[in-house]
What does this fold into?
Amino acid sequence: MIIYGILLLITAAVAYVFGSLSTLVLASNFLFRYNLNRFGRGNDWLSNFRRVYGLKGALELLLVEAVKDVIPIVIGGLLLGIKGHADVGRAFAGFCLIMGRLWPAFYGLRGTSGIMPLIFTCIFADASLGIAVSVVFIGALAVIRYMPLAAGIAALAAAVAPLLIVENKVVIYLLAFSGVAVLVKHIKGIAGVVKGTEQKLAFREDLSYKFETKF
It folds into this structure.
């Protein structure tokens, strides 16, 4: 039991630290060799970055994010796999990863969207679940074009769908908590959609920010 607790603590620490790491900082240092935080309007990292570098650059940034998210989930599966609970280890690592993304200790608990680590957590918990949540997110984003609302819908799907797909109750609980956490994080953005203050996702490059003057 002590060994199991130690493995859980190691998994939690590794996953939370990975979740707390800024993708922009990692991409700036290892891929683009430039401080990406200086780009554009300084708002949401992916939509803001896409305005400057286009789709190709955004995909490269997403690749960095994907690698950062997958590593701790795999580690969690390997560690808890020692005790025969690899599925729980992956789900638990995903949950801690999402907590780090939503409330990172390195950045004053001011995090960003946790939809990507949530999707990867679902994929490693059950491939069919991960595909279903991915389809829901991409489909919702393509139709409504509001990132917070699409992420909220996908998070709700990730919280409910495991009841129909996943067999392990512990994994179901971890996925449900993860989905609810991501949904809560997007409530402010969803409220902005309702109020009409949230911007739609633009699929064409927007360079209008270059003509804005800051006082």
